[in-house]
Amino acid sequence: MFSRTVLSSCKRAPQAHEVAQVDAALSKKTARPKVHTGIILNRSPIITRTPTAFEKAYYAYQTRIHRALHNPFPYDFYFKQGSPLESRFNIEERRRERKAEAEKLAEATMRDEEEAMPRVHEADINSDFKNLNRRGQRNLYLLLQKQENGTAVWKFPQGIVDRGELLHHAATRGLEVECGNNMDTWIVSRNPIGVFHPPSPASTGGAEEDVVFFYKAHIMAGQVRPNRTHTQDFAWLTKGEIKTRVDEDYWLGIKDILSDF
Amino acid sequence: MSVSVLKLNGLPFQLRGLGARLYSTRKGEVSSSDPQKDIIRRHLYPPNIRNKASPTGTWRPDVARALQRAIPSVQAHETIERAWLLHQRHLRKKRDAELQRKFNCMRQAMQELEEIDSRLFREANKQEDPRARSLAEVEAMKSMSEPEKRAVESRVRGLFPRELRIPTDTPPKNGWPNEWRAFQRPLA
């Protein structure tokens, strides 16, 4: 209305599309999208990756070559000739040579370790998604199950940014509100690592836009204690498992931010 | 005395280490007073006679024969090497592509932030000074116990925290530390 009275005072008669443009310009200036921060809480891998069959074979091959090429061992420097220590060393050395030739060196060294924990945890066998010991080789990300318009959706923890608050402060606050502060977390930097525009309901037509800035954080100790009012459930998932649980447009927004392995 | 020293400098390298022995014995006598010293000397300065491979690797006649036993053939070895380098190249390309995707996401996020709010954008781009302490931190540190103060000081802004664990071959004996005392870190 205001724009029409302004334009009517001009000499030229107002065109319909000009009026519409001025209306749009005024509404763009006033409507700033509501800013939210999401946190991608990552548990880094605990154990090293299992080498593939090709890698194992290559390492065994290289071990054989190194054994063939290495400088001769100065036996009489380290062992007194004829001593029992020397004979024990010779026995062990012959055993090692045989094992190297049979190409079972890698598994043998693993078995020789005294009382080492197994690489597969019981959480993997039981598919306990809340346990932080599962999938030691992979990167795990925290997902929360929330109620949105009656349906249950899986999302990263999220919170609104207050007026005058900085984004990374809002991220720490949001994480504490949604997941409790029983975790040793570290937000990596002041910069967001990704942005997501949730699809706004069609009725408002762009007036109330939401935008979510994602921040990366690492968890080093502790466990999630979800806030029961906001969230129903939580899970620590790998990238592939996230794809199966999350909505399709959410997945398209976040898939490039996450680590593949 | 000085004459014999000068003579030693003219000798080949291997025999210089035996200088002390030569100096202290009569001609033709081999000293066996300390066999350990002899062994050390023999290994540090291998004799020049070429009849046996030495630990320091000065003469290795057995290498070709040993290599013949270790590898199937020259062509097979080269094929294996090329396969390995190709495998490494694949891994490298995958890693680089993933990093590129992540970086593009970051760039997109910063572009949109700049459009939405210039103040938030400026604050997000600020360089972290590791030695600076924010007002909130200084205020909070005044009323903290010693261990809590140490916990705050140990987290240096802009550096990785010490508690980030490097992956090992087997998991820790006690598993993931689920119990952690809740500690409110002051806002940086």
UniProtKB/TrEMBL annotation, chain A:
Domain of life of the native organism: Eukaryota
One term under GO cellular component: mitochondrial large ribosomal subunit
Keyword Nucleotide-binding: no
Family matches, as Pfam families: MRP-L46, NUDIX
Domain Nudix hydrolase: 110-261
UniProt-recorded name of the protein: Large ribosomal subunit protein mL46
Localization, UniProt: Mitochondrion
Keywords carried by this UniProt record: Mitochondrion, Ribonucleoprotein, Ribosomal protein, Transit peptide
GO molecular function annotations of the record: structural constituent of ribosome
UniProt cross-references to PANTHER family, sorted A to Z: 39S RIBOSOMAL PROTEIN L46, MITOCHONDRIAL PRECURSOR-RELATED (PTHR13124), LARGE RIBOSOMAL SUBUNIT PROTEIN ML46 (PTHR13124:SF12)
UniProt family annotation: Belongs to the mitochondrion-specific ribosomal protein mL46 family.
Major localization listed first in the record, in broad terms: mitochondrion
SUPFAM superfamilies in alphabetical order: Nudix
UniProtKB/TrEMBL annotation, chain B:
Gene3D superfamilies reported for this sequence: 6.10.250.3440
Pfam families in the cross-refs: MRP-L28 (PF09812)
Name this protein carries in UniProt: Large ribosomal subunit protein mL40
Region (Disordered): 163-188
GO cellular component, one term: ribonucleoprotein complex
Similarity annotation: Belongs to the mitochondrion-specific ribosomal protein mL40 family.
One of the GO biological process terms: mitochondrial translation
Keyword vocabulary terms for this entry: Mitochondrion, Ribonucleoprotein, Ribosomal protein, Transit peptide
Any one GO molecular-function label of the UniProt entry: structural constituent of ribosome
Domain of life: Eukaryota
Location (main, coarse): mitochondrion
Localization in the cell: Mitochondrion
Organism encoding this protein: Suillus fuscotomentosus
